[in-house]
Predict the 3D structure of the following.
Amino acid sequence: MRGKLLPLAGLYLVQGLPYGLQSGLLPLLLRARGFSLTRVGLAKALYAPWLLKLAWAPLVDARGSTRVWLTCSTAGLGLVCGLLAGLPPPGAGQAGVPAAVAGLLLLLNLGAAVQDVALDALAVQLLEPAELGPGNTVQVVAYKLGAALAGGALLALLPTLSWTRLFLLLAASYWLAAALAWAAPALRRLPRPPPSEQRPHTVHFLRAVLAVPGTLWTAGFVLTYKLGEQGASSLFPLLLLDRGVSAPELGLWNGVGAMVCSIVGSSLGGTLLAKHWELLPLLKLVLRLRLGGLACQTALLFHLDALGASLGPGTILRGEGLVLGREEERGQEPGALLTSAFPGAALLSLCLQHFLGGLVTTATFTGMMRCSQLAPRALQATHYSLLATLELLGKLLLGALAGALADGLGPHPCFSLLLVLSALPLVYLGLAPSTLL
C-alpha cells in the first residue's frame, strides 16, 4: 500500500499549490502593489475552470489513460509557471492584472482542474476498498499542505525569491511531479479499461452516471454535510473579531491552528477506517460530536452577548481568564468568571470544530470514492468529478450566505439556524443505501 500512497501524496501536494497561490499569495501580492479591493476580488474569476470540471471529465474517461492525462496536465502546469516566470509581475498603477498574466493564470486553473479530474480518477482506480481510508487521508492532508505551502511559505519567501524565481520553483515542482506520475511503479501497473467497455452515447451519459448505485444519495449528502459547519467556521471568527479579539490572534488560531487540527482530524479518520471501522457508524459519531461543538459555540455567543462583555486584544494568546475558584471569593461579579474564561473556550471550540471537520471530510471522501468504484471504468472520472463538484458547491453555498444571514437575522438566530442545518445530515444518514454501508 505504501507504494501507492507515496506517489499519491506527492501528486496531491502539488495539486494544492494553485489554490494556495491564488487564495493566499496572489491577493496579498496585488493588494501590496496598490490594487483596490474590488480589483483583487475580481481575480477570483480565475477560478472559473474549477466549476466546469464536468465538461472535460468525460474526455478523461473516453480518451487515453488517466496516467497519461495526469502526466500531461502536470507537465503543462510546469510550462505555464515557466511562462509566468518570464513575465513582469503586476505593478502599481495598472488598471488590473495584465492580460498576459491573467490569461496564463486562467490556463493554470484550467490545467489544475484537468489534473484534479485525472488524479481523482486514478485514485479511484488504484485504491482497493480496504485502502480507501488511508488513501483519502493522504488526499486531504497532502492537498491542504500544498495549499498552505503556496499560500503561506512561498509568500514569506517572495521578497527573497522574486516573482521570476518563485514561478521557476513552481515549474520545477510540477515537472518533478509529472516525472513521478509517469515513472511511479504503482501507477505504471494500473490496468487500462478493457476494449469492450465503451462510454455510452452523450444523450444517455448523465443518466448512466446517475444510475450508479448510491449516486443520488451520495450527491445529496455531499451537498448538505458541510452546511452548518461551513457557515459557523466562516462566521465565528468574524464575530470574535467584532467582540474585541485581535486579527493577528485570529490569523494564528483560525489559520495555523485550524490547519493543524484539521490535518490531525483527517489523519485520525483514515486510521479509524483502516482499522475496519464501518463508514456509517463513524460518520454518525462524528456528526453528533460536531453538532455538540456547534451547540457550545452558540451557547458561548449567547452568554457573552447577554453579559454585554467584550474581549480585549491578546486574551486568547495569554489565556486570560482560565482561572479556578468562585467569583465571590475573588470579588468578581456573578458571571465574570465565565466571561473571563470565554477566550479559552472559544479557542477550544475553534480547534474542536476544525478537528471534527477534517475527520468528517476524510470519511465523506472515502464514501465518495466507494460510490465511484461502483461505476463502470469508462464513467469513473466523470462520476467522481460530479460528486466532487457538488461537494464544493455545498461548501460554498452557506459559506457565502452566512454573512448575509447574520446581517439579516442577527448572530443568534443565524447560529440557531446553523445548528438545525448541522442536524440534517444525521437524519439523512438514516436513508443511506446498503451499497455504501
User: Anything to note?
Assistant: The chain has a mean pLDDT of 77. DSSP finds 18 helices and no strands in the chain. The first helix runs from residue 2 to 15.
